[in-house]
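User: tokens in, sequence out, please.
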């Protein structure tokens, strides 16, 4: 068997994890058929990250090595990455979990989204454990093996993509994969050879993040992923339990999305939305089973006027969701939560720990409603409020405490 030479570069900040130096690297050094050239870690400590990676590529190309293996110092392969050489692929990324923008933990392995816009993370646990390699569009660079011919072909391979205004569209790893794909190279991920990704994180923050390992497939008929710009699986698990118990027939919502479609499977939903384009996108997802009406409003003034079909209506449940107040011209929760307090005995607030939501929950719900359940302690989680038999004040609470201590 011909010996293959791997150039190993561990990108670092001056520290290497014990798991790498005591377990993974010794295993790599003893791989049959592999000669491992480990670059001095003092040379792979540089910023910005794109420059560091491109400098590593230049030094790699000055050698006669067959493959470049780059591993970040906060990533530890849970396997011997040298064995990936024997697959003889252009690019192989061993996936680690990362936190995406939608409060969801995903494996860094993506395919183009079915609507042609952007990319969707893959649920790797849905693949049989005999299925080891999967061709994808994007992999992360936390643990990536690249064949020499790829880096001989691509000039300045690691560089983010920016729009005409200088705003980043795709980060370094996404941009590298897009460039490689456009040059005709194939990219693979390993479905079951994965990595640990070490991060410092608050315990409340841990509770907030959902998982890409789907346990709820209610979203599938609508082809809308959990998280990102919609509710997460954890959110729906919490909301759905309330729906099953309270069986609401008329639901008011502020901020349409995947939640509108799911809620309207159980009853009539009136959803007030501020973005006409988003309204049209959600309406296009409606199925026969959805009893959904989406109404445009300005996000500030009361949408339920004298000529509104919902004037003086009572709703069995109100769900308040949408972007932060600072986004989309100051559209916020003030009117939404005030209306919720007037038209229903049951209110769910999404992103309930954010500053604006906290402020308006105290203003309109506290004392009149009782906070009976939370889906978690992080700012993005849901709060479920139920109207009290009669309003209470702080003095009422103090008096009750005094009586209890007598």
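Assistant: Sequence out:
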């Amino acid at each position: 068997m011909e010996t293959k030479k791997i150039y190993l570069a561990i990108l670092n900040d001056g520290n290497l994890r014990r798991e790498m130096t005591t377990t993974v690297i010794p295993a790599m050094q003893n791989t049959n058929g592999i000669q491992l050239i480990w670059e001095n870690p003092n040379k792979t400590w540089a910023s910005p990250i794109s420059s560091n990676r491109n400098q590593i590529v230049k030094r790699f190309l000055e050698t006669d090595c067959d493959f470049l293996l780059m591993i970040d110092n906060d990533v530890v392969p849970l396997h011997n990455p040298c064995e990936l050489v024997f697959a003889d692929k252009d690019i192989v990324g061993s996936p680690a979990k990362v936190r995406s923008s939608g409060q969801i933990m995903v494996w860094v392995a993506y395919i183009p989204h079915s609507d042609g816009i952007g990319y969707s993370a893959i649920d790797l646990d849905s693949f049989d454990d005999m299925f080891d390699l999967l061709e994808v569009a994007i992999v992360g660079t936390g643990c990536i093996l690249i064949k020499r011919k790829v880096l001989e072909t691509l000039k300045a391979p690691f560089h983010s993509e920016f729009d005409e205004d200088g705003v980043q569209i795709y980060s370094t790893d996404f941009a590298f994969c897009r460039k490689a794909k456009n040059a005709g190279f194939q990219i693979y991920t390993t479905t079951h050879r994965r990595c640990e990704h070490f991060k410092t994180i608050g315990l409340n923050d841990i509770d907030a993040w959902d998982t890409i390992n789907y346990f709820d497939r209610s979203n599938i008929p609508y082809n809308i992923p959990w998280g990102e710009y919609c509710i997460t699986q954890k959110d729906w698990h919490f909301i759905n339990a309330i729906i099953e118990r309270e069986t609401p027939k008329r639901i008011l919502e502020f901020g349409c999305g995947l939640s509108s479609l799911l809620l309207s499977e159980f009853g009539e939903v009136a959803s007030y939305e501020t973005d006409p384009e988003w309204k049209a996108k959600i309406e296009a997802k409606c199925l026969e089973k959805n009893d959904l009406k989406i109404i445009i409003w300005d996000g500030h003034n009361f949408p339920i006027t004298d000529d509104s079909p919902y004037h003086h209506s009572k709703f069995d449940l109100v769900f308040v969701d949408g972007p932060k107040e600072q986004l989309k011209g100051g559209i916020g929760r003030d009117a939404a939560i005030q209306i919720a307090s007037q038209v229903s005995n049951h209110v769910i607030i999404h992103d309930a720990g954010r500053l604006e939501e906290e402020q308006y929950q105290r203003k309109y719900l506290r004392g009149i409603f009782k906070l009976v359940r939370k889906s978690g302690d992080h700012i993005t989680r849901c709060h479920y409020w139920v109207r009290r038999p009669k309003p209470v004040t702080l003095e009422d609470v103090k008096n009750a405490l005094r009586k209890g201590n007598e």
